[in-house]
Amino acid sequence: MDGNINELISDLRTYLEYLKGMGITSLPVAENVPKEAPRSETLTLADVRTELGDCKRCKLHRARKTIVFGEGNEKATLMFIGEGPGYDEDMQGRPFVGRAGQLLTKIIESINLSREEAYIANIIKCRPPQNRNPEPDEIESCNPFLMKQIRVIQPKIICALGAFSAQTLLKTDTKITALRGKLYDLEGIKVIPTYHPAFLLRNPERKREVWEDMKKIAELIQGQ
Ligand code: URA
What we know:
The chain is of the alpha/beta class. The protein contains nine helices and six strands. Helix content is 44%, strand content 11%. A six-stranded mixed β-sheet has the order 1-3-2-4-6-5, sandwiched between helices.
């Protein structure tokens, strides 16, 4: 084996010296350059869904019924990102379809957009058992897919729903009361956190603040 390699190296050296003698001092290597990953402009949501497959990258796959990938307009200006699927979402495979989802639909419609015009996703795509908070390894497994979805959609604005979503996207532990209604940046996309619709169901007196945040979003969309 060693003998073969030495012979190969010796042959290669002879060949390179021969080329050098001919005045050739560099070699094209283009064919050996690894192909670049497709850029987001060419990637589609269907590609991201295919890559996700029947995901078993984290332990949440064991108890989930359905992967909740996300839904809406592939070219949405406005994207909503919640925490993770609950019971109804896990059953139907669609984000925000339970009571909180019905309220989210009304919130979207309050600025004269339809659910279908926006894109709705979650930080994690599988329901945690007993709706417990997602764990760091689960978020880490899921995050590359959410980031790809964001890069495909390239929304102008992401509305982060609730503390968990806002803190994960913005990599901060600042409280949602301090984060909400302000503008942040994620890869050049404006992020505006607001309260989670499930929180509003329990605290309807906080709806006024969400309305303020939605008006800000509407102004940003109009001024784009
Ligand atoms: N809560 C979320 O954060 N996401 C959903 O999809 C449903 C409820």
